[in-house]
Amino acid sequence: MDQLLRATGKVARSRFPREAVLRALGVGAEQTPRTGCRSFSATTPPTPPAEVNKDKAVGSTAEAKKDGTAPPPPPPPPPEKTSFGGLKDEDRIFTNLYGLHDPYLKGAMKRGDWHQTKELVLKGPDWIVGEIKKSGLRGRGGAGFPSGLKWSFMPKASDGRPSYLVVNADESEPGTCKDREIMRHDPHKLLEGCLIAGTAMRARAAYIYIRGEYVNERLALEKARQEAYKAGLLGNNAAGSGKDFDVYIHFGAGAYICGEETALLESLEGKQGKPRLKPPFPANVGLYGCPSTVTNVETVAVAPTILRRGPEWFSSFGRKNNSGTKLFCISGHVNKPCTVEEEMSIPLKELIERHAGGVRGGWDNLLAIIPGGSSVPLLPKKVCDDIMMDFDALKAVQSGLGTAAVIVMDKSTDVVDAIARLAYFYKHESCGQCTPCREGTGWLWSILERMKVGDAKLEEIDMLQEITKQIEGHTICALGDAAAWPVQGLIRHFRPELERRILDRAAREREEEPEERLAVA
């Protein structure tokens, strides 16, 4: 009987003729009913579709006929949000971003920091990770990887090794200055976030790796750390939770490459800051060979507020898969450069005009914008008119949100010279471990230096593009990609400008050649 039931079930699921399936199973067609059900449905005629629909209707059809009213229709789904931006003050996470209030413990507690932290910690790692996943928070350091998923990679059962949280405060991307504002004006948000994120990862301690040039930020963070220890918020029995959690601050030495997570771990261990091959990934073999997660300052700092206000509140901002609020750094040719917290998916034009006073000389004077720090491709004005500031929208136009450092260039900018300067930065900051990056970044810079004065041939533009492709994706870490993408963006959107410079120089040289011959004669 069981064989027959299994056979009829397979017949029902198969896309092949019934008889062919039965032959393959060694069961005769005459033995098998038309259904795989164990009840009397094999001998019961099928229910007419109309009756099925009646049974599934909301409310009882018979009752509806008695009182003469139709059953109520199901409620419509909530309308999808289509406009973004204009974040209200009560929805801002970083309420002391400009340093207008006391940054230390007394002022921080007035602003809601360290409120019911004990209760959040005692809810446990699985609850914290689940809430972060529900919120849709994605990493704020550039890659945009889902934070809850990343935190869940840490081992749940200890094999005897301690686990560590490592906070990447080595903010060195040109144009990016958001994390420094958190550390000097809202340091307790970061420290509380370390305790929350560390609990989620079952970590024993957190290491905050600060960029070497951030001297004042380190002093502010160290003062806040000492306050937290004295108040019993960190250390033994942190925040009264019964859990021990320590926070250490480590000063970097100014190397951009140490912003890469495994190079940062190498530097923390006292070695040269050179990226590691992966796998193994830090969640398995990280700091001192122990499970570790490296995450960004902003990502950690927003976690307590998300847990207190709920993941639904956070995910109500921005488009789907691009949830929350975000710190944007706006610099370059704007009237009021600033760092501002805004809703994800805000239109780029609105972001600049609402918070930075608009482009110098008006929006029509705009040439191009780098939307996410120096490592993402630039966008020309025609794209900037309508683009939204989130991961998916910028990816669709072959750029990226990155660190959300918006660098504005007006029409007075020599765009080739600007990208050549970025190429020099990446050449200088390459650790030299990978040949494509070590050699390729130098090639990019030297060719662009010639191209900005037109001292090149037209076919060298394609050669430059080919060099970027030989670097991109062929290195241990993403610094090679970061060096290649700005050059690719330049060629994609400003190739006519490169060609014009080359042709103009060639024309000038042809005009000067007869004069030189006459002078010799």
At the fold tier of CATH, the topology name of the largest domain is Rossmann fold
- Point out poorly predicted stretches: 1-16, 32-65
Q: What is the CATH H-level superfamily of the largest domain?
A: NADH-ubiquinone oxidoreductase 51kDa subunit
**How does the helix and strand content classify structurally?**
alpha/beta
Give the topology string: H per helix, E per strand.
Answer: HHHHHHHHEHHEHEHEHHEEHEEHHEHHHH
Helix content bin: 40-55%
Mean pLDDT across all residues, rounded?
86
Q: Order of strands across the widest beta sheet?
A: 6-5-9-7-8
The description of the largest β-sheet is:
5 strands, mixed
Overall CATH class of the largest domain = Alpha Beta
Number of domains: 3
Tell me the radius of gyration: 30 Å
Give the number of helices.
Answer: 21
- Ends distance: 110 Å
User: What is the architecture of the largest domain at the second tier of CATH?
Assistant: 3-Layer(aba) Sandwich
Percentage beta strand: 5-15%
- Global outline: globular
How many strand units? 9
EC number: 7.1.1.2
Membrane topology: Peripheral membrane protein
Subcellular location: Mitochondrion inner membrane
InterPro entries: ComplexI_51kDa_subunit, NADH-UbQ_OxRdtase_51kDa_CS, NADH-UbQ_OxRdtase_suF, Nuo51_FMN-bd, Nuo51_FMN-bd_sf, Nuop51_4Fe4S-bd, Nuop51_4Fe4S-bd_sf, SLBB_dom
